[in-house]
Structure formats: structure tokens, C-alpha cells
Amino acid sequence: VYFTKLGFAVFKVNYVGSLGTRFDTTYELIGRISEREVNQVHELVQQLLVDHPVIDSQHVFLSGGSHGGFTVTHLSSQFPGFYKAVVARNPVIDLNAMMGTSDITDWVYVESGISFDKEKLLIPTVEKTTDSEKLRNFSPVNLAHRVTCPTLLQLGTKDLRVPMSQGLIYYRALKSHGKDVELSVYDDNHALSTTAVRANCKIHIAKFFNKIADKPIFID
Q1: 66 a catalytic residue
Q2: Any transmembrane segments, and where (predicted)?
């Protein structure tokens, strides 16, 4: 409601791998992250623009958190030029680094399709160089050089699920490639859901998108 009141069209994609669909697609992402869901979202956005020509196709923006942050950072790098700005909240950026710092090391193994011994304590780093390369290829940081649109990162200092170091890695990678990137840090956890932080995030997202679109924020 907030963003539509500001004049935005809002499209929330329930992409493959979600429990919220009629069919169980949770296993379809295993070993196919950064490909299956990213391509699906991009195809749906393109179809949306065809079905609803009233939407400004020259100002398509992205916003997502956690795995959604992983997805939107891949979209901005895999389809440079199509998306005009991206906001990523506590995004998954570097799977090799995340494996040793997150409280869900098993998620990195499973989603990446890397096998592990379920009877033993998970080792917070892969043992094979081929697996490490696989994680690198899945990671948005690997494509940071291809990003062309401005990026806003919103990170929580108390995030145990996707540690703030993930976003900082991406911030530094984009900076090193001369990209337009902004960083907001909050004293909050993974969800960035405390009332004051949630409100601040929404306000900054709207201001960020409006700056790119070069139009004022308005409330009807």
C-alpha cells in the first residue's frame, strides 16, 4: 500500500522453491540457485510489462531480502541495463564465506547441491576445490563487475542468518569496480523488522527509487 500510494506498481513474485505455491517446488532449486529462480522472475517481469503497458518499462526496480536479496543482485548482474536500481536487504552474496559464518551452514550445502555427511557435525567450509568453485559461481559477488544500475544495501549488525559481512563483501566488490552503491547499517537482526528500522528502510527505498526515476515522492 505504501509504495502504490507513492505511484509505484508493485509485483511480488512467489518464485520456484517457495512453500506458498499450490505445488511443492522446494526441491527444484537444489543445485540450481542463481539460475532457476532468477530466470523465472525475469520472465515474469517481462510478461507483466507486456500485459500491463501502463507500467513504465524504463524504470523497473528490484527489492529483496535474504534469498530475495540473492535473487535481485543476480538479476541486476545477469540482465544489466534492464533493471534501473536494486535494493538488497541482508542479501546472500558469497556462499563460500557464508558457509563459515552463518547459523545455517546446512542451507548452503543443500541449496548448492553439495553432499555432506548428515551424521557428522557440518564442516563450515568445503573440502573440495571443485565445490568451492561451484559456490563461487553461484554467488552474486562473482558477477559484481557486470552490474550497471545503482545499488542500495540495507544490513543488520545482529544478523546471524546472513551476517552483515555478506553485504560488506558486495559493497566493497561494487566499489572496487567503480559501481554506484550505497550502504545503510541498522542495529537489528536478519528481518530488519523492528518498527523504527522497518519504517526507515521503507522510506529510504522510496527515496532511492525516486532519485533514480528523477521524480518527487508524492502521496495521493
Answers
A1: yes
A2: none
Please tell me which residue in 94, 131, 159, 188 is annotated as part of the active site: 159
SS3 of residue 66 by DSSP: coil
The tens-digit pLDDT sequence of the chain (220 residues) is 999 999 999 999 989 987 766 777 888 899 999 999 999 999 999 999 999 999 999 999 999 999 999 999 999 999 999 999 999 999 999 999 999 999 999 999 999 999 887 776 678 888 899 999 999 999 999 999 999 999 999 999 999 999 999 999 999 999 999 999 999 999 999 999 999 999 999 999 999 999 998 876 554 4
- Alpha carbon distance 49, 82 (integer Å): 12
Round to the nearest angstrom and report the end-to-end CA distance of the chain.
12
Cα separation of 205 and 200, whole Å? 9
Decide if 190 is catalytic: yes
34 catalytic per annotation: no
Distance, in Å, from the CA atom of 83 to the CA atom of 59, rounded to the nearest integer, reads: 7
Q: Which residues contact 12 (CB under 8 A, 6 or more apart)?
A: none
Would you put residue 113 in left (φ > 0), alpha (ψ -120 to 50) or beta?
A: left
Measured CA to CA, the distance from residue 64 to residue 72 in angstroms comes to: 6
